[in-house]
Design goal:
It is a single chain. By secondary structure, the chain is mainly α. It contains 5 helices and no strands.
Length: about 140
């Protein structure tokens, strides 16, 4: 999506390896990790006040999972591309994490408040269609 909708590279210049790397990460790493993470939050972070529970889950999600997942994403992309994970992290991590914090806390607050556990990964996957375009773009910058 990023290559066609954002970068407009055209079908003939589409980088299939890049698409494959994104699909591999999403299917083999993010999907299973997010499912396990949401179950963990549901089981372990509970307070008497529902709004405190939601705030604590969002805070934990954004400080623990989001930062770790972004680190893993950028590092694994660099490794699969044959480039330096340190260089990728130095050039993209902080900017991407700041952008993450502009989008995902609100998404997750609504997700934790209104969406049943079994559908939370689906909500994240829908929003991730756009987010992953951004990540793919920022990951490929400078190449």
């Amino acid at each position: 999506m990023a290559q066609q909708a954002v970068e407009k590279v055209g079908v003939e210049k589409h980088n299939l390896a890049r698409t494959g790397r994104m699909a591999l990460y999403g299917g083999a790493v993010f999907g299973p990790a997010a499912t396990t993470w949401f179950k963990f939050l549901q089981q372990k972070i509970n307070f008497q006040n529902t709004n405190v529970t939601i705030a604590a889950r969002v805070l934990t999600d954004q400080t623990v999972f989001a930062s770790t997942n972004l680190f893993c994403f950028l590092s694994s992309m660099a490794i699969m591309e044959g480039t330096s994970p340190r260089d990728k992290l130095d050039s993209a991590y902080w900017t991407a994490l700041q952008k993450n914090w502009m989008l995902w806390p609100a998404v997750q607050a609504v997700n934790f408040k209104l969406v049943p556990l079994e559908h939370r990964v689906l909500v994240v996957n829908i929003v991730s269609l756009g987010w992953n375009c951004y990540l793919s773009y920022i990951n490929s910058k400078g190449k």
